[in-house]
Write a structure and sequence with these properties.
293 residues, alpha+beta, 10 helices, 10 strands, 44% helix, globular
């Protein structure tokens, strides 16, 4: 028994040393952006959560991940097939916002399936598709309520994409702790939030995301499975990027997974510098867990 306890202590000490080493690496990377706040959360393959600047930070389009969960749950509980369609009238097709969906439709609009709207919103980060899905579930407050009633603390969601684009300062309304995002992604991987078919569909959407090739994805070896949701703000009149975010999960070659959220907040640096910091953090985390199993 004493020998087993001794080995257990050694293993725990080894884990602590590994996590401390990683935290030091992340602090060095974050130090390259001294004027920004960089929120980081990591949920390691062995279930240890550690974080840096884990306060409520602007989410931007990362909120489209909990939106997708709320939409899929409503579809499941109401028996609404994902092949059913929603009307996208011309009143939805506002210009001046990022929307491949709008660009695919005639000026008069059309009808689009729930599955397609989820693809546009989650994989492509389409703002009009996002707001149409928000309308479907009952508004931002419905997504906030979904999170709270299921025990997910550390979020506050109260604004649509339309509202956020009325004024750059509105992009600070939807907030989350980096650790809360990590835990939400981990819960999806664990299973049981949704029917298994819908969870598989959502994982596919996250892993098929085309945004953020220069963020978490850029720090990973080619072919690595990454399921994630990005977010990026406008700049203030003073040239400050309110948020440059990426959060999701990564599968290691041995089948283990970890979750990661990186939120670069209020940075005066250029976009390349901000995204390079996210990529460097992603690389450091991947290499740490790949070599320590």
């Amino acid at each position: 028994m004493k020998r087993l306890l001794f080995i257990g202590c050694l293993l725990l000490a080894g884990c602590a040393d590994t996590h401390s080493a990683l935290e030091r690496k992340l602090d060095r990377i974050a130090g390259n952006l001294p004027e920004a706040r960089i929120g980081i959360a990591i949920l390691s393959p062995d279930g240890v959560l550690f974080s840096r600047q884990d306060s409520l930070l602007p989410m931007l389009s990362t909120f489209k991940f909990p939106l997708a969960l709320a939409v899929l749950e409503k579809a499941a509980t109401t028996g609404t097939p994902l092949a059913s369609t929603l009307d996208i009238g011309p009143e939805w097709l506002e210009s001046g916002t990022y929307s491949p969906l709008r660009d695919s439709l005639p000026a008069t609009g059309g009808r689009v399936t729930l599955a397609a709207l989820l693809h546009y919103s989650t994989s492509l980060s389409d703002n009009i598709a996002c707001d149409r899905l928000l309308d479907f579930v009952g508004g931002p407050e419905a997504v906030d309520r979904y999170l709270r009633t299921r025990g997910f603390d550390g979020f506050r969601i109260a604004a649509s994409e339309h509202t956020m684009h009325l004024d750059p300062e509105n992009q600070r309304i939807n907030v989350a702790r980096p650790s809360a995002l990590c835990k939400l992604f981990a819960r999806l991987l664990q299973g049981g939030l949704l029917p298994s078919e819908q969870e598989a569909f959502l994982r596919h959407l996250l892993e098929d995301a085309t945004t953020g090739a220069n963020k978490l994805r850029a720090g990973l070896p080619e072919g690595t499975v990454l399921g994630h949701k990005t977010g990026s703000s406008d700049r203030t009149p003073q040239g400050i990027r309110i948020a440059e975010n990426d959060a999701g999960y990564v599968r290691l070659p041995d089948g283990r997974s970890y979750c990661i959220a990186v939120m670069v907040i209020d940075s005066p640096a250029d976009d390349a510098t901000n995204t390079a910091a996210i990529a460097a953090i992603s690389k450091a985390v991947y290499e740490q867990f790949r070599t320590n199993n």
